[in-house]
Amino acid sequence: MRSVYMDNGATSYPKAPGVGEAMADYIVNVGCNIGRGGYQSAYDAASLALDTRDQLCRLVSGPGPRNVIFTPGATYGLNILLKGLLKPGDRVLTSPMEHNAVLRPLTQLQAQGVQVDFFPCNDRGELLLSQAEALITPQVRAVILTHASNVCGTVMPVQAVGRLCRERGVLFLVDAAQTAGVLPIDMKAMGIDAVAFPGHKGLLGPQGIGALVLTDALAAQIDPLVAGGTGSVSHELDMPSFLPDRFEPGTLNLPGIYGLHAALAFLEAQGEELRAKERALARRLWTRLRELEGDGLRVTGAEDPDRRTGVVSVDFLQGDNGEMAFRLEQGYGIATRCGLHCAPAAHQTLNTYPQGTVRFSVGPFLSAEDVDYVHGAVEALLREGR
Ligand SMILES: Cc1ncc(COP(=O)(O)O)c(C=O)c1O
Q1: Does residue 75 line the site of ligand 1, with CB under 6 A?
Q2: Is the CB of 74 under 6 A from ligand 1?
Q3: Domain boundaries, the chain
């Protein structure tokens, strides 16, 4: 049976060529820590880590390589931001399309007296910008917004929200878990003060390594969530005031950094071509599944293909979504994800709560034939279900 991995929204597979080899190279041939030892291999590893910060800074047009903080993933970066910044009495705006990596820290903060308000979205997961505009007032401390929904693939109007935030002196934080490496991100042009993302999704790197990129002005307002050794200013008991050390206590995930470095080098070498291929696959998947819409199937998310990522979530109207995902895997070798995708409010917005959806998500290594195979399998399931 054919095997088609359609769960790239959860994590990319396969990884970029060279990722596994780079990680093994670190473990087998390097192995040392950085920022602590004064010997050649430690300097070489530090130089690679710095090079990776440069790559990540270029990726998001960040303020500089020092402003790139290595994290275990988007979740950690978002927690560093939200919990370090927001204090009782602060007001924060977000959207109902957020992942629990945003909603759960905000719920914890709410219990401590932070006021959390939501932008309105329609049932396609699109932010209603004209109504949102009125909510972004100078009294708001920060806006935190996902760049694209992990549930339905709808892309948020990040640039427009960033402009409003800048005009009104409001901090703008972006969860780019679904878009880093997939869509252009330009912190300066989009008015973004901080962006958090993992290395294991669109960047085609390994799990356990990601980045938070933030401006100096924002960093100065954030208390470190975790404190510990940094290999710098060790005589001081306070965390260093400078970046990246302020937010990087403890030994870094160096195998992960080696792997991510290789992935980013691959992406840079491929240029726009690989992403154009992924966009074409995304559009094909969405178009083909939409051909099947009717009594048996609803496709969620934005109706403008230019405002969508490669995530396409469907609701099987005459069957249980969990069972359909099982049958896709067992009968056709198609790996999807079903359920609420850690974003319950997004499903309430899309009217797919509590049943959730079956989520298909493309990656750049799939082919048009893979997408057509998925279309055929869904069509067959719908036929069998009648
Ligand atoms: C929109 C969004 N935000 C945050 C996360 C969390 O990312 P990670 O698990 O890498 O920390 C995910 C992962 O699924 C996501 O899709």
Answers
A1: yes
A2: yes
A3: 4-14+271-385, 19-269
